[in-house]
Design goal:
This protein has 15 helices and 54 strands. It is of the alpha+beta class. The chain folds into 5 domains: 101 residues, Alpha-Beta Plaits; 321 residues, Peptidase S8/S53 domain (Rossmann fold), CATH 3.40.50.200; 150 residues, 3-Layer(bba) Sandwich (Glucose Oxidase, domain 1), CATH 3.50.30; 117 residues, Sandwich (Immunoglobulin-like); 242 residues, no CATH class. The strands form 12 sheets. Strands 7-10-6-11-13-14-23 form a 7-stranded parallel β-sheet, sandwiched between helices. A hairpin with an 8-residue loop joins strand 42 and strand 43. Helix 5 runs parallel beside helix 12 and helix 6 packs parallel to helix 7. It binds calcium ion (4 copies). One of its GO terms (biological process) is proteolysis. It comes from Thermoanaerobaculum aquaticum. Keywords: Cell wall, Hydrolase, Protease, Secreted, Serine protease, Signal. GO terms for molecular function: serine-type endopeptidase activity.
Length: 1016
């Protein structure tokens, strides 16, 4: 489900057979009674009695379910962080369950996927180790695929993986000094998304041994000891002197923290067991006393389009309330608005985005001659064709094909084949698959292939192309652009190279220019209710960590899954350094200490990334450990960031940030707020701009945002203009940081975020209506909006409703239609709804066209997301009753590249279609009606409305194609009227403030001609 802002009751989709749901019962969870401190003793008794009451309530509820004959399969019960049971039930029983008085809410369990990635180099962790903070004594739960506790990285024996029975204890050394506890909630065969019912039922056991590999890699990033080149557990010491480059696997960020392996996945697939594992983390010994909770949990998992009311998100919020710092992956779905994952989207969770660091552990190839080029260079291998480790090294002269054939995507010409035969072929990456290139080289007689990337990004394992069944018999490696260029310079002298596996996982490739750029896969926020997410960024591309089942090897993976444990490890260091701080304060300190700049193109270069992609910035644990202050939004300490919601241009907003002195000395601060990408028409200020705080003192500052009508409505400079080959729509975002400086040193940041929308005030002046027989005209007044091309959409009014006083974004206030008079006219429908939606996906507008006027619709137009997981929105046309739908135009009809029609945060939607797509030609009569809906169901259904291509009672001679004209003060709109007819014109102003987005003007018969007054 991708809907936001909705009550969970409405989120249950119609599934074919059975649904997995979380049934929340009426009693509160036990955490509601839990308080530490002076009232602790009393609250413990209350919490325990609530726990017992909840367990009774669940028993009674399940007995009742059984009595009513519902075929429910229990998945789990929880009563501490949430009170309820997770069930798989047949669809037809959902209504019955929902109606039972014991049921408070019924929510879909959204399966969570592990977010694959490589975890990477560290963020000043060795500096903190040198201060003697290594995570010692801090307890971190890894909610994942399990942990291979036999691996040397965790102090295991390095053997015994295959002989371990993964369902029982006693046959392998677990727990050990590193992996000190855990549980398998799933069993190896579990997969929440499986088509096989038995696989959807978890089979818990006490042995959390990993079989997927993800959790082992993640645990290694958090707290692995490291593995020496000899394959032994690295014994330390952990400090700036730790010989990181001499280790086969580097230590984790907090190498002396303890790991709890909470296995919620089977060996593959997804999970619905996250809330249950969080419950365990809150009360490991199950006695109802939360004092033994874990300090930190790592959730390198999620599902896209996160909200704050997914059950797992609610469990994450309540785990934070119990005092656990919940660190969760932002997701791997890229630069799309609102796609940030749940449970990272939970307000109290620390949502982690992924960036790139300067180093990656890869393999290499060798150049043997000429002498001045000799050496080893970064390279990866292919996962198809012969394995170089068993084939042995492949040596030869390097050769390239004829100009124009460098990509190797087509069979090589005879001239190229003559050049490549018996040689190692140098071929560029791009356009077709790696296997295609290698096959073509093989057919040309080459003995090996060296592929050159288009840039200096990390060489990565070249994937297979299973559509090519031909056998690949020659080896291939891939290197980077700068190396390829150098090789080409020397080709005429004869370059002798050796493809080899001998550097596999041992060659450290560094590229400083990519450091602190953002990983392309990292999911964008904000959350659907405009609260800022993600919160923080860490390296997550090509991270090298423990490889499951290998005993001592490492592997390179990429993803926000790998960035998350970097932050969880940093949190463990901070927890040891500042044990007196609560979990939410640790979250704030991690964000406050961040280096706020992440780079769109290259290290040090603008544009900087907006906070909706990277949060506070890239974690810098050294600053978090040393900063004297704590900063957080007063009204939402758990969020830390200051989110100011939606502002229309011309409006102002402000919010308070608390500044606390954590030290015993007086601290003098200078405060400033600055945008990460400056928008025009916005001013930020901080009052006061300086503070002196006594020891332990806490004060509040106000961050003020003022906007003007000349607001710069521009796309994030790091975003491409298109996505999935569609023009992309975008939010206009205020992205800023509040900076605190002591002397001139940056000591803390807090992200500041708001969504802005144009706030124009153009209106037609009815008093200047010229009504002369069959012609009329209307003139516009208002203030010009520099930097924007505002539009007016002139339509003939077809439907109008009065406001209800209970604004709903899907309810229609007005609907209009217009078409031009060309030989292939475009039919434009425009709607104004009762309140702005956040995403156009929140509201479905369907226009049904009855083109042969027989009372049955022949076509349907609707808004939709053009390509899954992108910001491209389109108008889709479907022939009815059944036919192939197609996307005919971007939503609004005009390319958002040329003229921007706001699609987000608007209450105006324009759907246009060429008449030829729906069988309408000039002068055709047709009828139509519209139905709008949201996840609550249908909002408006209009009556059937007669219409005519070219206009019914009124038409607009000035329009060609989509009915939208540039709007400016003084501009005159011409109207053509049928004689003796009264009509009403609907004018939509997409760029106006919400209260001025529609205007209805009566014209024609009965409307007296008015005289234009002088322009004022
Ligand atoms: Ca075992
Ligand atoms: Ca197991
Ligand atoms: Ca306990
Ligand atoms: Ca029809």
């Amino acid at each position: 489900m991708r809907t936001r802002f909705l009550l969970v009751l409405c989120l249950i989709p119609v599934l074919a057979q059975a649904a997995q749901v979380f049934v929340e019962l009426q009693n509160p969870p036990a955490i509601a009674y839990w308080h530490e401190g002076r009232k602790g003793v009393q609250s413990l008794a209350l919490a325990r009695s609530q726990l017992a009451a909840n367990q009774q309530e669940q028993e009674a509820f399940l007995a009742e379910v059984n009595r009513r004959g519902v075929q429910a399969q229990e998945i789990y019960r929880v009563s501490r962080l949430l009170n309820g049971v997770a069930l798989e039930v047949p669809d037809e029983s959902l209504e019955l369950l929902r109606s039972m008085p014991q049921v408070k809410a019924l929510r879909l369990l959204r399966p969570k996927k592990p977010l694959l990635a490589t975890a990477g180099p560290l963020v000043r962790a060795p500096q903190v180790w040198s201060q003697a903070y290594t995570g010692r004594g801090v307890r971190v739960g890894i909610i994942d695929t399990g942990v291979d506790y036999l691996h040397r990285d965790f102090g295991g024996p390095g053997s015994g993986y295959s002989s371990n029975d993964s369902t029982k204890l006693g046959d392998a050394p677990f727990p050990n000094a590193k992996v000190v506890g855990g549980w398998d909630f799933a069993g190896d065969n579990y997969d929440a998304g499986s088509d096989t019912p038995s696989k959807r039922t978890p089979k818990p056991d006490p042995d959390p041994m990993d079989c997927g590999g993800h959790g082992t890699h993640v645990a290694g990033i958090v707290a692995g000891f490291g593995v020496t080149k000899e394959g032994a557990t690295f014994p330390g010491p952990f400090s700036l002197a730790t010989p990181l480059a001499d280790l086969a696997v580097a230590p984790g960020v907090a190498p002396e923290a303890q790991i709890y392996a909470l296995k919620v996945f089977g060996c593959s697939g997804s999970t619905a067991l996250v809330a249950q594992a969080l419950e365990w983390a809150a009360d490991p010994n199950g006695d109802g006393n939360f004092a033994d909770r874990l300090d930190i949990v790592n959730l390198s998992l999620g599902s896209d389009w996160g909200s704050n009311d997914d059950p797992d998100a609610e469990a994450a919020n309540n785990a934070a309330r119990a005092g656990i710092l919940v660190v969760a992956a932002a997701g791997n779905s890229g630069d799309t608005t609102f796609i940030v994952s749940s449970p990272a989207a939970a307000t109290a969770a620390l949502a982690v985005a992924a960036a790139v660091d300067s180093g990656a552990v890869v393999g290499a190839f060798e150049v043997l001659a000429p002498q001045n080029l000799a050496g080893s260079y970064p390279a990866s291998e292919a996962d198809f064709g012969p394995d170089l480790a068993t084939l042995g090294d492949r040596q030869g002269l390097l050769a390239q094909p004829q100009p124009g054939e460098e990509l190797g995507c087509e069979p090589f010409s005879p001239a190229s084949a003559a050049a490549l035969a018996g040689k190692i072929a140098l071929i560029n990456r791009g356009t077709c698959t790696f296997k295609r290139k290698v096959l073509n080289a093989q057919n040309a007689g080459a003995i090996g292939v060296l592929i050159v990337r288009q840039d200096d990004g990390d060489p990565f394992t070249m994937g297979n192309d299973t559509s090519i069944t031909a056998s690949i018999t020659i080896p291939a490696q891939m290197t980077v652009l700068s190396v390829g260029q150098r090789l080409r310079e020397y080709l005429s002298q004869g370059v002798q190279v050796r493809l080899t596996a001998r550097y596999r996982n041992q060659f450290l490739y560094t590229n400083r220019a990519r450091e602190d750029t953002v990983a392309s896969f990292s999911s964008r926020g904000p959350r659907g209710d405009l609260v800022l997410k993600p919160d923080l960024t860490a390296p997550g591309e090509s991270v090298f960590s423990a490889a499951n089942g290998t005993g001592r090897e490492g592997v390179s993976l990429s993803g926000t899954s790998m960035a998350t444990p970097v932050v969880a490890g940093a949190a463990a260091l901070l927890k040891q350094a500042r044990p007196e701080l609560a979990a939410w304060q640790l979250k704030a300190l991690l964000m406050n200490g961040a280096d706020p700049w992440l780079f769109g193109r290259e290290k040090g270069q603008e544009p900087y990334h907006r906070v909706s992609r990277v949060g506070a910035g890239r974690v810098n644990v050294e600053r978090s450990v040393s900063t004297p202050i704590l900063l957080y939004a007063s009204e939402s300490p758990q969020a830390v960031s200051l989110s100011l919601g939606l502002l229309e241009a011309g409006q102002a907003a402000s919010g308070q940030v608390k500044v606390a002195n954590l030290t015993n000395r007086t601290v003098s601060l200078r405060l400033a707020a600055q945008q990460t990408q400056a928008l025009t028409g916005v001013r930020l200020s901080v009052v006061p701009s300086g503070l002196q705080l006594g020891p332990g003192e806490e004060r509040e500052v106000t961050v003020q945002v003022e906007t003007w009508q000349d607001l710069g409505v521009v796309r994030d400079g790091t975003q491409a203009a298109t996505q999935g080959n569609w023009p992309r729509f975008f939010l206009t975002e205020l992205s800023a940081h509040l900076y605190a400086f002591e002397q001139d040193e940056l000591v803390g940041v807090v992200p500041v975020y708001a969504v802005l929308k144009p706030g124009g005030n153009l209106v037609a002046q009815p008093s200047r209506l010229q009504n002369a027989g069959s012609q009329a005209s209307l003139s516009l007044t208002g203030d010009p909006q520099p930097g924007l091309t505002p539009l007016v959409v002139p339509l003939e009014l077809a439907y109008q409703a009065a406001p209800t006083g209970n604004p709903r974004p899907a309810r229609l206030m007005a609907l209009g239609v217009a078409s031009d008079n060309s030989s292939n006219p475009t039919i434009t429908f425009g709607v104004k709804t009762e309140a702005p939606w956040v995403s156009p996906e929140d509201v479905k507008v369907q226009v049904f066209l009855d083109t042969n006027q027989d009372g049955t619709a022949d076509f349907k137009l609707e808004n939709r997301r053009a390509v899954d997981d992108t910001d491209g929105f389109s108008v889709r046309v479907c022939p009815l009753p059944a036919g192939a739908c197609q996307d005919v135009a971007p939503l609004g009809g005009l390319s958002p590249e040329g003229v921007h029609i706001p699609a987000f945060a608007s209450s105006v939607m324009v759907l246009a279609v060429p008449g030829s797509e729906v069988g309408l030609s000039p002068g055709s009569n047709f009828q139509f009606w519209a139905v709008t809906s949201d996840s609550f169901g249908e909002a408006t259904r209009t009556p059937v409305i007669p219409a005519r291509v070219g206009g019914n009672a009124v038409s607009f001679p000035g329009i060609t194609g989509v009915a939208a004209l540039p709007a400016a003060p003084g501009q005159v709109l011409s109207l053509s009227l049928s004689s003796n007819t009264a009509a009403r014109v609907l004018l939509l102003f997409p760029h106006n403030r919400s209260s001025l987005q529609m205007q209805v003007v009566p014209v024609g018969k009965g409307q007296p001609a008015r005289h234009l007054s002088r322009r004022q």
